[in-house]
Amino acid sequence: MRIRGVKPFASAVGLLLGLLCAVEAAKVNKHKPWIETTYHGIVTENEDKVLLDPPLIALDKDAPLRYAGEICGFRIHGQNVPFEAVVLDKSTGEGVIRAKDKLDCELQKEHTFTIQAYDCGEGPDGGNMKKSHKATVHIQVNDVNEYSPVFKEKSYKATVIEGKKYDSILKVEAVDADCSFQFSQICSYEIVTPDVPFTVDKDGNVKNTEKLNYSKERMYKLTVTAYDCGKNRASEDVLVKINIKPTCKPSWQGFNKRIEYEPGTGSLALFPSMHLETCEEPITSIQASIMLETNHIGKGCDRDTYSEKSLHKLCGASTGTVELLPAPSNSANWTVGLPTDNGHDSDQVFEFNGTQAIKVPEGVVSTTLKEPFTISVWMRHGPGSREKETILCNSDKTEMNRHHYSLYVHNCRLVLLLRQEPTESENYKPAEFHWKLDQVCDKEWHHYVLNIEFPAVTLFVDGASFEPFLVTEDYPLHASKIETQLTIGACWQGGSARMTQYFRGNLAGLMIRSGKLENKKVIDCLYTCKEGLDVQLPEEAASAVKVEFNPNQSSLSLEGDDIESFEKVMQHISYLNSRQFPTPGIRHLRVTTTVKCFNEETCISVPDSEGYVMVLQPEEPKISLSGIDHFARGAAEFESTEGVTLFPELRIVSTITREVEVEAETEAEGEDDPTVQETVVSEEIMHNLDTCEVTVVGDDLNGDHESLEVDLAQIQQRTLEMSSSNVGMVITGVNTMANYEQVLHLIRYRNWHTEALFDRKFKLVCSELNGRYISNEFKVEVNVIHTANPMDHANNAMVQPQFINQVQHASVDLSGHNLANTHQASVVPSAATIVIVVCVSFLVFMIILGVFRIRAAHQSTMRDQENGKENEMDWDDSALTITVNPMETYEDQHSSEEEGDEEEEESEDGEEEDDITSAESDSSEDEGGEQEDQQGSSRQQQLEWDDSTLNY
């Protein structure tokens, strides 16, 4: 039977679909693939699998379009790169890097190259293929313990004096050719020869376990072996010969050369079993000095490594302090180009090699010379130079080369230039202040503070005050409208537009504080060390021995005439470090001793004793940020004065992981002794934070219609500070994690022009001790819900419920969205996806219209099919209780036209609702037939409910 009107209708539908598809094809592959900017990988020798962090995944905003949204490959750039990148899944963009050939750590420990992802283009031929940016890949080759230790010498010899116990008679040393620290390090030495009065420590120091007797044995022969940290034994043992001499030599006995200090354990006795061997010489007095050398650590010793601005606050300084050499950040980026110490264990310092200088942006410093101000800086400089070396300079920006004020070094002199402003009277006034100091050129760190209250200037060096030895006077500057330029490391010459008088040395903590002078209490606090020597004098020795400390407690001197009391005081000298996370490493110790005898001609000489305190690596805290990282809000909330809270449920937790020894009881027979095992324990700890930075991911903030805001009163109440820019917001100040949590809960994002906004992404990072410990990057994505007509939500049944989905301990609020993918990095539907949905909806609508015509021509056939479907779809509902709206029967019989209109609306809501609409339209078309009436009656009887209790 021929169906009228179907062919023209199909042609129209095909033409329309062709046009829509042509429009869609023109828009495919609009985006480049995206990958991370940096990857770090680890691969083991002789293996090809590379473990990457983060994993190699390329994303493409053209997804889920085929080809355009798929990743076809990764391309590695670099010469002789022994790696290849392979795509594992085109649709997800997941890939892997593996080695082409076997790698040798001894030949090359690290590999660096770049990688680039490219999509599949617009079709199978790869046309219009797009590439991502180039990302840097750093791969470290892990070592395999291939080599055994080898001793540097074929044999060792030493001579000792009888009757003495030595801290170290000699030192054997083995080396290992493996490339890694673990397998190349020698972890232990062992004396193979049995029953000898000697022992060897893990550093290879051989010492006697008892006093030796020349008459009993004149020479000992020992065989010593070595083990690396991979437990490989030396390929050949070494022979050690120790000769015994009968003479006595005075010295300190019981002095351990290596003393390990575990952070957080309080004070540690340095010489608990120390005593002085005098070879029975009568002694009248003893003098000793103990030096703790910490010049190689940070700025001279272990100090707090908070930012200099935070340290000023902790020490009680008032507001007005400006940090001129801050750690590089988004809000303070003028120090980015300066070389630093590349570490955060101690203070971060900036290096100046005579060619580098930086300009301080306008508005950072607003110091006027009419009010008192303070300049403070840490400096390490030397040797001296005949040329001026500028630390800080404020000069004319253009036209002329006048220096308004500057601080510089010249011939081991520290000089402050301070010119009068033009508005002042035309009189001679002090303009240059000179201090001749050894500290300026001794290549050591020193703390300088200049209190300036014109015309008086006071200098403090390491807490001690110094008056200038020379003051030069000068007239005021001539009046001009030239702006000034503040520079560090050199002086700007505005007339010739170049830098001059470059500084050579190291600077840190350069500060200017205007409005008030720094008091002595604050200066001492800034300079004070957090580590040093300490002594708890025993009562019986307190009066017999005189003890004196230097100001920073890095050395002490002892003087007494009783050897027994003197030794007791030495045994109570301890090392103390009050930092929660001290700087690991070596602190050298030196004990210098002078003795006096009854007979000056035969007085003994005690050699210096040297050793070191090894401060072990502290248990580093892991700062974790967690909370809701994905949520959606209505556009009206973004545009309101309150805005949208970015971190409503943020949690900041810090934990440390340590290995502890536990005793496990064994139940097996014959095993009575407990076995010592190690287990890993994580525990939460409390410490301070000093910075939290919120950064915009993607385009910078547009100040015309969006901003990040926070209640400044709440920040000031917690003695914190806030700075913001178009890239985000930085909150600084030393405070508890709980206070930082409360402040971060208050940060709001506002956007009063949301028409073209679909999402915004932000990143939060917090740190402690000026960046020494950094948290994870907590990323938050907020989506904007655009509502076409507010009246559409009058019916609550039409509003989708809000829900929160937990993903890896991070709550994801997707209110108002029906997302198929709940991955954290979910993507807002692109324009291409919207076009597809519209096409499908329109196609369904056209098909429904065609079904109406077909059903009108073949009513009887459709009834038979409907009966067959009803029979097939019958189910056993005897155990079901189904509640039906009592008005449903009436609506089924009298709303054919209304359902037709509603179907047109509902067809736009999605494919799932399209199926329901088609079923309803079938029922509507067949309502006029007798058989359909019978079916409707049958359904009504099956779905009938008990309405006896209803009141109509």
Tell me what you see in this structure:
With 952 residues, the protein is an alpha+beta fold. The strands form 15 sheets. Strands 22, 23, 25, 30, 31, 32 and 37 form a 7-stranded antiparallel beta sheet that branches. Helix 1 runs antiparallel to helix 10, helix 10 runs parallel beside helix 14 and helix 13 packs antiparallel against helix 14 (911-925).
Strand and helix layout:
Layout: H1 6-25, E1 38-44, E2 51-53, E3 71-77, E4 83-89, E5 94-99, E6 110-119, E7 135-142, E8 150-151, E9 155-161, E10 170-171, E11 174-175, H2 181-184, E12 186-191, E13 198-200, E14 205-208, E15 219-228, E16 238-245, E17 251-253, E18 258-261, E19 268-269, E20 275-277, E21 283-293, H3 308-314, E22 321-323, E23 350-353, E24 358-360, E25 373-381, E26 389-396, E27 403-410, E28 413-418, E29 429-436, E30 445-453, E31 456-461, E32 464-466, E33 470-474, E34 484-488, E35 491-493, E36 498-500, E37 504-514, H4 520-527, E38 531-535, H5 539-542, E39 545-549, E40 555-560, H6 563-571, E41 573-577, E42 585-597, E43 609-615, E44 622-626, E45 630-634, H7 635-639, E46 644-645, E47 651-664, E48 675-684, E49 688-697, E50 706-709, H8 712-717, E51 721-725, E52 728-736, H9 737-744, E53 748-751, E54 759-768, E55 773-774, E56 778-785, E57 804-807, E58 810-813, H10 831-857, H11 859-873, H12 888-894, H13 896-906, H14 911-925, H15 930-942
Helix pairs in contact: 1-10, 10-14, 13-14
